[in-house]
Amino acid sequence: MNVLVAGGSGFIGTTLCAELVERGHAVTALSRSPDDAGLPDGVAPAIGDVSAYESIADTVAGHDAVVNLVSLSPLYDPRGGPSHEESHLGGTENLVRAADAGGVSRFLQMSALGADPNGDTAYIRAKGRAEAVVRESDLEWTIVRPSVVFGDGGEFVAFTKTLTTPYVTGLPGGGKTRFQPIWVGDLVPMLADALEDDAHVGETYDLAGPQITTLADVTKLVYAAEGKDVTIVPIPMGLAKIGLAAVDSLPFVPFGPDQARSLEFDNTVADNDVTAFGRDPADLRTLGSYLGLDGTDHRRTRSETA
Ligand SMILES: NC(=O)c1ccc[n+]([C@@H]2O[C@H](COP(=O)([O-])OP(=O)(O)OC[C@H]3O[C@@H](n4cnc5c(N)ncnc54)[C@H](OP(=O)(O)O)[C@@H]3O)[C@@H](O)[C@H]2O)c1
């Protein structure tokens, strides 16, 4: 297949591009500022901004499949920059329109767990509305909705460190928000399968890792990997929101009220659709294993082995 990966230079994108090349596909990675040096071998770079239709239409045309991995991180606070609505919703509208006009048949949309047009954060609302755009198209679409994704180049571990300190740290609500993190090395083959196998057309999948873990657990794991203890001091959620609203005016602080709201909701699945890809949730990589905290799983991401 001739595959265009929009957002192919990002965290999940570079891993997916490498997987697709390895499976024998011709791959182009589209983003606003692709860096040849950062792309896996064999991947062609293309410049375009999904929020500007004319900048992507010609590039999209003629591909067999398009993958939409464009992201403004849910942790990103758009003050002054593009909004979640422009990037996630407008970007999806433009990619779907360009795919339709350009004879593309397959479309894989990366959404997010809990995506909901009436959700509580701008990110989740834009993701929910973007899903509707994809479903209403005539393309052979598949939508995947992962929980938080970890791996080399990902934000999850780095963000946990930004939010906390070793030894003693305050966490909103005591860090009881629950996640079900999935390793990028487990997720990406499922994305490639979703493109290749007709059985996945018209399906929406909630994908998560093997364990439900709280933000407090993740904080302890991240510092344990550095040989440090941490005691969690609960900060009442209401107080945390005031604090986070106060830092909202500081452009260098990557955190605002929407991000505080996102910590009020669990990010876990009732049924883990990794089974649709022949995977048993229990066999997926844990965050602890990735951080080197148990010796039972020695799999590594591409960049770790490179
Ligand atoms: N990482 C997670 O934990 C997680 C969890 C659930 C869902 N997701 C979803 O998975 C997808 C990929 O996430 P990721 O973590 O890999 O994101 P990422 O590392 O932030 O990569 C985002 C990519 O999108 C490109 N991009 C951003 N705005 C663009 C625009 N206007 N036009 C064209 N390209 C643009 C970026 O390149 P330039 O900046 O050069 O344009 C980059 O290649 C996203 O849809 C995200 O919402 C991620």
Structure overview:
- Residues 247-254 and 296-306 have low confidence and may be disordered.
- The protein has a domain at 2-150 and 183-207: NAD(P)-binding Rossmann-like Domain (Rossmann fold, 3-Layer(aba) Sandwich), CATH 3.40.50.720.
- The chain has 306 residues and is an alpha/beta fold.
- The strands form 4 sheets. The protein has a 7-stranded parallel beta sheet with strand order 3-2-1-4-5-6-11, with helices on both faces. The protein has a two-stranded parallel ribbon with strand order 7-10. Strands 8-13 form a two-stranded parallel sheet.
- The protein is globular, with a radius of gyration of 19 Å.
- The chain has helices spanning 11-22, 53-60, 84-101, 122-135, 156-163, 184-196, 215-224, 237-247, 257-262, 287-290, 302-305, and strands at residues 2-6, 26-31, 43-47, 65-68, 106-110, 140-146, 149-150, 167-172, 178-179, 182-183, 204-207, 213-214, 230-235.
- The protein is built from 11 helices and 13 strands.
- Strand 1, helix 1 and strand 2 (26-31) form a beta-alpha-beta unit.
- The chain binds NADP nicotinamide-adenine-dinucleotide phosphate.
- Residues 6-7, 9-13, 31-33, 48-51, 69-71, 73, 87, 91, 110, 112, 146, 148-149, 154, 156 line the site of NADP nicotinamide-adenine-dinucleotide phosphate.
- InterPro entries: ComplexI_NDUFA9_subunit, NAD(P)-bd_dom, NAD(P)-bd_dom_sf.
- Residues 7-149 form the NAD(P)-binding domain.
- Pfam families: NAD_binding_10 (PF13460).
- This is NAD-dependent epimerase/dehydratase.
- One of its GO terms (molecular function) is protein-containing complex binding.
